[in-house]
Amino acid sequence: MAQNSKSNKNKQYKQQQSSKKSLQEKTSNPKKGKQSMHQKKKSGGCRKWALGSLILIITIIGVLLYDTEVNGKGVFAKSSVGKVLENAGVLPSVEKAWYTTMSAAARGYKWTESKTTPYLKPFLKMSCDLFKMLRNAFCNIFSTLKNIMNARLPQAADFLDQYVPGLSKKIEVTAESVKRFSFEFCAKVGEFFRTQVLIGRLSPQNLSKTLNHTQNLALEYYQTFHKKVDAYAKLK
User: Fold this and answer.
1) Where are the membrane-spanning stretches (predicted)?
2) 158 and 182 part of one domain
3) What DSSP letter does each residue of the chain carry, written as one string?
4) How high is the pLDDT of residue 36?
5) pLDDT tens digit string along 24-52?
6) Range of the structural domain that residue 149 is part of
């Protein structure tokens, strides 16, 4: 009897301990869930703050550049913002900070350009080789599927003709009609664009001139950009 009472007490004690553990787990799990949710919200808030700061900085730079080019005629001191800073007596400090920042950015750009240019050609060559490899693989797959279809079409036609006589011929005639209609439609659309749309300003000659002019402007901008980078990089 004494042994039975001891065993019953041990069972009750174990049940109490297990119930306490389950209660502790239930109370601790919501805390862990709240902590994970708080961390997710915190990381999402940091990302939004960083994105908002970047957009704000880009907007401020754009406004300053527009003000300098339009109101200051390319001179920051003559712009609206420059005049306000000059009246406040902080224009020299702002200009010094600006030139220091631009000098560091120009040097960083030149360093990056000098370090990445040797690796640019191999990267472009690798990209072209990868594109050619994917194109050849796609062409091979297309040719294989085409050969399989051509080999299976007679069998499929015979199978269809067993149940619906003449169905394969009807499908072939319909496919030829659709193909002929597609070619005629494309020819008419091309003729319409050639005679009605691609005339005047949209003629091939004018489009070619516009493309050449755009390329020349891009080249001039690239040269001007590099001149400014070299000038800022020489500042101390």
Assistant:
1) 49-66
2) no
3) -HHHHHHHHHHHHHHHHHHHHHHHHHHHHHHHHHHHHHHHHHHHHHHHHHHHHHHHHHHHHHHHHHHHHHTSTT-GGGSHHHHHHHHHT-HHHHHHHHHHHHHHHHHHHHHHHHHHHHHHHHHHHHHHHHHHHHHHHHHHHHHHHHHHHHHHHHHHHHHHHHHSTTHHHHHHHHHHHHHHHHHHHHHHHHHHIIIIISSGGGSHHHHHHHHHHHHHHHHHHHHHHHHHHHHHHT--
4) 63
5) 555 555 555 556 666 666 666 677 787 88
6) 120-163
